[in-house]
Here is the input.
Amino acid sequence: MDENQMKQEVKPPPQVTGAETLGKHESMLSIILKKFFQNKLAVIGLIMLTIIISSAIFAPWLATHDPNATSTLDRLAPPSAENWLGADHLGRDIYSRMLYAGQMSLWVGFAAMLSATTIGVVVGSVAGYFGGWIDGVLMRVVDIIISFPSIFLLITIVSVFRPSPEMLIIVFAILSWTGTARIVRSEFLSLKKREFVLAAQTLGLPKRRIIFGHILPNAIGPVIVAATLAIGAFIITESTLSFLGLGISPPTATWGNMLSDSQDLTVFLTAWYYPLFPGLMIFITVLSFNFVGDGLRDALDPRVVEK
Amino acid sequence: MVNNIEVLERGPEKSTLEQEKILQIDNLKKHFPVKSGVLQRTKGHVRAVDGINFYIKKGESFGLVGESGCGKSTAGRTIMRLYEPTEGKITFDGEDISTQKERHLFKLRREMQMIFQDPFSSLNPRKTVGSMLVEPLKVHGLYKGSKERKEKCQEIMSRVGLNPSFLNRYPHEFSGGQRQRIGIARALVLEPKMIVADEPVSALDVSVQSQVLNLLDDLQVDFDLTYLFIAHDLSVVKHFSDRIGVMYLGNMAEVAEKTDLYDDPLHPYTQALLSAVPRSHPRERKRERILLEGELPSPANPPNGCVFHTRCPHVMDHCKEIEPKMQEVKPNHYVACHLYE
Here is the structure.
């Protein structure tokens, strides 16, 4: 039937079935935000993260000292009006260093998360959607990567190459996309059998559109949650490596290498404030990411939206 | 419910005319491999559809009935080429579409559409109704310009009985019946020639069922549609179809004009099915009820010979060995049963 014919035959709508009385319209975003803000811990986490992230971004304006300027007179000075959170064993201002360290730690965490999530989503989508031998091959690659003892591999890699932030990000991404890939694959396996995917196929939509436009948005909830939790994990791993002296090399500050510098027994016993504050930052940041991740898990659950 | 629907029954005027065939199915088979073990070796096949033949004439409604698991939905999806046919030929509008690659199916997608059973799973919860309707128009390059496309969507919305201003709503804001109307709108937006309706009303309330059936009826006239109507509810099919095919365990048992099939069912399975339809009229209640013994056999291991022989009240010796062929016993009344040889 062609267009003209269609226009002539427009009829008054047949029996509109109470359709005029739908509830108030709410966009998907406002539903998700509403659910998220009902979760108190998630909101606290979000506030903490906002403070931490903006303090890292605005470090140059917030810092009271040059983070790398040493001062022999102030070695291990306790908190005072001059050094708000004290000074370290080289007389550097702990407060200023902590702000700059936040920049580095969060940058490594975010960049590694973005790269790992991108790889994981693409591999997981392709494996889950196409199945068969493609799925078989990709999932065996995942199995192989998971079976590497990652901490030893990390130590080997960073001790052979000079550990730079970019280097760490790449290594983290390569070793940790597997979890996301598995999550995305399993979501795809169940979603691709849903009738709306069949409908998209009968409409002749291209595969790329079906995978990334139709299935992925329904699988994105768990991915965002995993990604949020992953940032925390990357910050911890970076700290672990720095603590072992294999992380980002001094004098660049990270929360991890500040903690590691403070692990000298004499420092530890006399200057409690030196290990306390970077440790506290790691703790609060990772905890906040986990709270936000939990909040997102509930807010993005499509089943909750359905009701 | 039988009452509601029988009032709406269509007249005989369009069913008996000689019309051109729009869809022809020859010996269509769809087997699913059963895999097991670490190496995923194929351990056999589920013969979901095992060689069915029928045709659909332009402008008619062909009802495909059978109990759950008889392969009727698989048949519908294979005809839509959502599944790769294992064997056999599907001819749509004079063109063999059974072996075409995805690229060549693109044109077919405009001409044959599907309405799904579950209105809750058939609409993407993350997409607005508008974007669901616009996307196929964009992909197929219809209606240049987003304004024209939006007008088309609004027109379709009002045509299926929904307020056109609901285009920016999400599926979860609608009721089941309204969602099914959205599904119908989506199938119509490309203006197809044929629609495969896979149990379009079985998930709906009885009161909504007849509304949706009436809508489908109206649309058939307005859009010049041909329907392949898959259902397990015989009273729905009776209301809706011109001709009916009865499936049992992946095979076609009987194909006939609606009135012929309901007045004079020939296959023992069809007789049993029809005797199970509840009647509202007291005088009709006295009729004999044919009860089938046993369970539906597994399609992974179907019986030899006639697949119905394990439950057939008229079973004969050669039914267990020889598979009955489909034959025209009366004009336009085909049956696959040894009783009529």
